């Protein structure tokens, strides 16, 4: 594998493991400039990115790169342009923030519980859009397994579901000083475990892992809808825990009755507990969330800017965090506050990119139109050669433009296995920039999608 290809492969794997804003901020513009005699040299766009990547992501990068090139023993980092290795003792202070203050973001996930310690009840801002869900979670923490079982939280993307259910888990752990066993899992991971267990005849393992916990937290349950074996296994897990008064906490992007393929018996179990929704936060709550996030990062931003961001972003807290990351990064890099006009620019770019009104159906229509095939052929199961590339592009765009999960993408395109979606995404992603014809196709299709939506 050549340097470029190796690095693209490494990046596409890192991207799956860290948050999108972090990836975009720290690694997107990196390059592998040397790989000789077991020593690799990675170039980063500026000093700050270099220090950050060195301290935060070195282990991850080394692990991944060695999977693809076993000869690599060490990696050095340099600032792009200078190409002179900066010795670590010459590190200078970077504005008013130091690494420790910024390190909040990638705090270690606890391998036993899978919980990220950064999600706490204390850092969850409560407003009218989420107070019911918050109080229910707080009540569950106080009386685990007794009061609201299961607790079912639902709401749109980026509105704090994962934060809240993980915070409940963290709180239970700290109140019980780690005695109460908690396990957090995404339904994607649960599905993978079930598939693996069936394939390897180790279904007992599922029982050992999931039925021996005191609190089971399952995130984004909507993805198990329609997967019979997984639903069945989950049903049995649910019952086993429920009968022992163990707590179950579930999140979903919609209420149980709106998950079309969910088995009736699971639906009625979910409806037997407490169901609480998280809605869109009002302006005041958004301002409070922004201020909390800035405080966590030890960053100061003028009120005027806080208000502007709160005004422009109404639907998704994760997008707000992306903007804050950019602002903070800018302030660190240039060691001065961003002017209001600069903030406007950052916001406009982000909104342009997010285009929240694009739907999977629009992507399917655009790709089908571009390749002059019918949408039903595009999402069908016919393996004719002419459909392969359009399908891969469709899956790539669903991930790239809509950030949809692989299982969901696979379910939209001929009900394929999610590994097909991962493969397709990577294949296209790695070729972009290298294959000018493919790159042009993608750009043109994106334009079509953006125009019609
Ligand atoms: P969801 O799981 O609903 O898609 P997340 O829980 O991942 O959303 O939230 C996205 C980001 O927004 C997280 O970083 C989270 O900390 C933050 N967030 C969302 N709601 C709140 C809130 N009420 N208070 C503080 N942070 C919040
Ligand atoms: Mg989530």
Number of strands: 8
CATH level 1 class label of the largest domain = Alpha Beta
Rg over alpha carbons: 23 Å
* Helical proportion, percent range: 40-55%
Number of domains: 4
Considering the protein shown, what is the CATH homologous superfamily of the largest domain? P-loop containing nucleotide triphosphate hydrolases
* Order of SSEs: HHEEHHEHHEHEHHEHEHEHHHHHHHHHH
Distance between the termini: 40 Å
Proportion of strand residues: 5-15%
> Would you identify the regions where 5 or more consecutive residues have pLDDT less than 50?
83-106
Give me the secondary-structure category: alpha/beta
Which ions, cofactors or small ligands are bound in this entry?
Answer: adenosine-5'-diphosphate, magnesium ion
Provide the spatial order of strands within the biggest beta sheet. 5-6-7-4-8
CATH topology of the largest domain: Rossmann fold
Q: Report the total helices.
A: 21
Shape: globular
Overall pLDDT: 87
> How would you name the oligomeric state of the polypeptide chains in this document?
single chain
Q: What is the CATH architecture annotation of the largest domain?
A: 3-Layer(aba) Sandwich
């Amino acid at each position: 594998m050549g340097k470029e290809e190796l690095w693209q492969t490494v990046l596409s794997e890192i991207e799956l493991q860290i948050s999108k804003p972090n990836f975009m901020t720290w690694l997107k513009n990196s390059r592998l400039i040397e790989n000789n005699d077991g020593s690799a040299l990675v170039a980063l766009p500026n000093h700050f990115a270099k220090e950050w990547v060195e301290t935060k992501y070195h282990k991850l990068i080394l692990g991944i790169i060695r999977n693809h090139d076993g000869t690599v023993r060490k990696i050095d980092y340099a600032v792009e342009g200078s190409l002179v290795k900066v010795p670590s003792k010459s590190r200078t202070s970077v504005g008013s923030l130091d690494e420790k203050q910024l390190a909040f973001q990638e705090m270690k996930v606890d391998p036993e519980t899978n919980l990220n310690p950064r999600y706490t009840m204390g850092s969850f801002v409560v407003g009218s859009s989420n107070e019911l869900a918050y109080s229910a979670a707080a009540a569950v923490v106080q009386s685990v397994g007794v009061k609201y079982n299961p607790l079912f939280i639902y709401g749109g993307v980026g509105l704090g579901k994962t934060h809240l259910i993980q915070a409940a888990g963290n709180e239970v752990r700290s109140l019980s000083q780690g005695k109460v066993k908690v396990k957090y899992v995404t339904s994607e991971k649960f599905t993978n475990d079930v598939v693996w267990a069936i394939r390897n005849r180790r279904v007992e393992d599922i029982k050992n892992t999931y039925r021996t916990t005191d609190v089971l937290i399952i995130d984004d349950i909507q993805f198990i809808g329609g997967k019979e074996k997984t639903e069945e296994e989950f049903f049995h897990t649910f019952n086993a825990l429920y009968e022992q008064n163990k707590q179950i906490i579930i999140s979903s992007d919609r209420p149980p009755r709106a998950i079309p393929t969910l088995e009736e018996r699971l639906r009625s179990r979910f409806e037997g507990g407490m169901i609480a929704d998280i809605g869109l936060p009002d302006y005041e709550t958004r301002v409070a969330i922004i201020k909390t996030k800035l405080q966590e990062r030890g960053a100061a931003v003028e009120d005027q800017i806080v208000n502007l961001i709160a005004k422009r972003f109404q639907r998704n807290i994760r997008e707000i965090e992306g903007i804050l990351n950019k602002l903070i990064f800018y302030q660190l890099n240039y060691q001065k506050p961003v002017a209001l006009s600069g903030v406007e620019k950052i916001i406009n770019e982000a909104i342009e990119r997010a285009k929240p009104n694009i739907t999977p159906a629009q992507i399917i229509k655009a790709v089908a139109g571009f390749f002059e095939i019918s949408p039903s052929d595009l999402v069908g199961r016919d393996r004719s050669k002419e459909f392969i590339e359009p399908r891969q592009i469709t899956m790539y765009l669903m991930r790239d433009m809509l950030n949809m999960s692989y299982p969901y993408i696979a379910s939209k395109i001929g009900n394929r296995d999610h590994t097909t979606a991962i493969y397709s995404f990577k294949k296209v992603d790695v070729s972009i920039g290298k294959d000018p014809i493919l790159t042009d196709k993608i750009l043109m299709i994106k334009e079509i999608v953006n125009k019609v939506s």
